[in-house]
Amino acid sequence: MAAFTYAPAIVLLPFVSFLVALFFGDRMPKGGALAGISATGLSLLISVWVALDVAGFVGSATGYNEFIYTWVAGVGSVALRFGVLLDPLSALMLLIVTLISFLVHIFSLGYMNDEGETGLPRYYAGLGLFTASMLGFVVANNLLMAFMFFELVGLCSYLLIGFWFREDGPPSAAKKAFLVTRFGDYFFLIGVVGIIATFGTGLFAPIREGGEVVAHGFPGLAEEAIVDGATEHIAMLDTVGMDPQAWFTVLGLLVLGGVIGKSAQFPLHTWLPDAMEGPTPVSALIHAATMVAAGVYLVARMYGFYAISPTALAVIALVGGFTALFAATMAVVKQELKQVLAYSTISQYGYMMLALGSGGYVAAVFHLTTHAVFKALLFLGAGSVIIAMHHNENMWDMGGLKDRMPVTYWTFLSGSLALAGIVPFAGFWSKDEVLYEALIHGLGSKGGLGPAYLIAYTFGLLAVFMTGFYTFRMVYLTFHGQPRTDIARDPVSVGWNVKGPLSVLGVLAATIGFINMAPVAKLTGAHIDFLHKWLLGQEDGGWSAELHTGLHHYEKLLKEVAGVGVGEPLGTIGTLLASAALSLVLAVAGLLLARSLYGGSEPVEHTDKLGGAKTVLMHNYYQDEYQVWLATGLTYPLARAMDKFDQGVVDGVVNGVSSVSLFGGRRIRRIQSGVVSNYATLLTLGLVLLLVAFGVVGGWF
Amino acid sequence: MAVPAQYYLLLSAAIFCIGLFGVLTRRNALIFLMSVELMLNAANINFVAFSLQHGNLTGQVFALFGMAIAAAEVAVGIGIILVLYRNFSDVDVTKATTMRW
Known about the structure:
Chain A is mainly alpha-helical. In chain A, 71% of the residues lie in helices and 3% in strands. Chain A has 31 helices and 4 strands. In chain A, the strands form 2 sheets. Chain A has a two-stranded antiparallel sheet. A two-stranded antiparallel ribbon of chain A has the order 3-4. The radius of gyration of chain A is 30 Å and the shape is globular. Chain B has one domain: Helix Hairpins. Chain B has helices at 5-25, 29-54, 58-88. Chain A binds chain B through residues 669-670, 672-677, 680-681, 684, and chain B through 20, 23-25, 27, 32, 93-94, 96-101.
C-alpha cells in the first residue's frame, strides 16, 4: 500500500520543477535543467516502486483506485473529483513517461544549453509542466480529470512547439497544433459530458472499500446495461431514444474524436509534421511519451467501454490501419530528417489504433511501449545529427556521418531496425503482434467486423513495406555514402549528455521487445510473454478482479459482446509463423529496396520516378489545402452568414425595440412645457380621470 | 342643534373648487400660493367636520398638521417666488419656462 500513497508525488515533482524553473531558473546553473532532471529522476524511482507494488513484489495490494480531492461536491447529483488509478497499465505508462522525460531532460543539456539557446528557464518550465500533465493524465481515475490533463498536455505542446517564437514557423506551427487537437477535443468534451450525464460517473474503474463497491465505473455500468439489460438506472437512454449499444457507441466515438486529434490519426494528423518546428528534444517527448501517446492511452484506459461496441472497434481499427499506410506513403518522399520521423510517428500510432480496434489490447500497449523507446531514440539521434549539422535538417546535405559520429550511428541504427520491424529488435515483436491480432480476429470475427479488420490489416501490412523503405532511405541518406556538404565532412562533435541518453535508449530499443516475445512463447511453450501476463490479471482476486481492467475481462467482453472471434486457418503455430514471416519479409524487402536505391556512395533522388504521385505526396495529399479550404471556403462564409443573421435579425429586434421607445420618448417629452399651470391642469385632469376610472370599475354609478 | 355635516362638506368643496380654479387660471405666483392655501384649508374643514361627526379627535389633530404643513409650504413658496422674481424680474409663472425639455 505504501507506494500507492506516494503516487501523487510522481505527478507533483515535475510540477514543482516547473515552478522552480519558471521562477528561479534564471538564477540557477543550467537554466533550471537540474531541477527538471532531479524531479523526473525521482518520479522515475517512485514509478519503479509503484510498478514493483503492482507486480506484487512489494506490499500487499496490487491495484489502487481512490479519490484524493473533491473539486465540486454535488448535492444529490454528480460530484467532480480527482483521484488516482493505479493498475499495470498506468504503472507501465508511468515508467515510460518518466524514463523518456528523464532522458530528454539530460539530452536537452546538450541540445539547448550547449548550443547557447536563450530562454532556457521557459524551456525547462515547459518540459516540467508537460511531463506533469502527462503523468496526471496517466494516473487519472476518471474521465473529467483525464480531460483536464489532456488539455494541459495540449497547452504545453503549444508552448514548447512555439518555443522559438521570434521566428516565423514555430508560432504558426504551435497555433496549428493547438487548433487541430482542440477540434478533436471538442468532441471529447461532449463525450465526457455525455458519459457523465448517462452514467452519473466518469470513473474508469470501480472504487471499493473493504471489498464492497462504493462507486461504480462507467465501463462496468455500460457492460451491465448491455450484458444483463440493467438499463433502468440510465435515464439518458429514454432521453435520446436509442438502445444502449447504439448510444454507448455514439459516446465512444465522441471520445474518440479527442483521441484522433491527439494521436494524430487521419484526418486530424496534419498538426504533427508541423510540430517539428519545436526543439528536437520536445519532438522526442511529444512523439514518444507525452501528447501523442495520450490518445492511444485513453482508448486503452477505457477499453472496457470500447470492447462492448463492435462499431466503435471497427472504426478504430479502420482509422488506425488507414493512417498507418497513409502516413507511411508520405514519409517516403520527405527530405528533412525530422519530417520522415514525424510521418513515421503518425504511421506507428496508426498501428496502435489498429491493434486496439481489432482486439489486440496487449499488442497495442506493447507497441506503445516499444515505440516510445525507439521513437525517442530516433528523435534524440536526429537531434544529435542536427547539432552536428549546424541545424540543417535536409538529408541530401548529409551522408557519410557513420564514421564521424559512431555512437549516434549505431544507436540510430538500432532504433531504425526497431522501427522497420526487423527481428530481433523491439519493433518487430510489437508490430508483428499487432498484425497477428488483426489477422486472426479479422478471420474469426462475426458480421461486418471481420472484413473491416481484414481491410485494416491489409493497410497495416502494406505500411510495413513502406516503413522498412523510408526508414532505411533515411539511414542511408544520413549516415552512409560520401559526405555531400562541407558540414557533413566535418560535423560538430556531441557531448556525453547526448551520447548517454542515446546509449540507454539504443540498448533498450534492441532489447525491450523481449518483454513480450509472444510468438516464441507459443512455439516453445516457455512462459516468457511477460507483458501479456502483466496485463492479464487473475480471473479471481488481485487488481483485475477489483478494477475490471484486466485482459481476462476485456477478452471476455470482446468475445461475448462485440463478437470478436479468432480464426486460424493454418492452425495456431502455422498462422503465427505465416503472419510473422509475411511482415518480416515485407520489412526486409523495403529495407533492401532502400539499400539498392540509396545505398551507394553517391545516392541520387529517385522520387521523380513516382511521376504525378510525387507531387501529391510532397503536398501531403493536399490535406492542409483542403483543411484550409474548409476553414476559409466553408466555415468562414457560414460564420459570416451567421453573423449577418445575428446582426440583422437578433440585434435588429433589440435595436427596433429601443428605437421605438426612443422615438416615443422624443415625442412625449413635449408635455414637459415648463409652464406650471399646464402641470397643474394635467395633474387635475389625471386625478379626475383616475376617479372616473375607479368609479366605472368600482360600480359607483 | 348642530349644523349637519353636508353643509360643511359643501363649504369645503366650494372653497376647494375656488382654490383649484385659481391654480388653473391665475398667472401670478402669489395668487397661486394663496389658491393652494385655500385648497389645503378646504381639506382642513373636511377633517374637522368629520371629526365632529364621528366624535373622534384624530381629525382635529390632522387639521393641526395640515396647518403646520400649510405654514411650511408658504415659507418655502415665498422663498421660491423671491428667487423667481430675482431671476425673471416677474412673478408670472408662465414666463419661467426654462425647466423644460
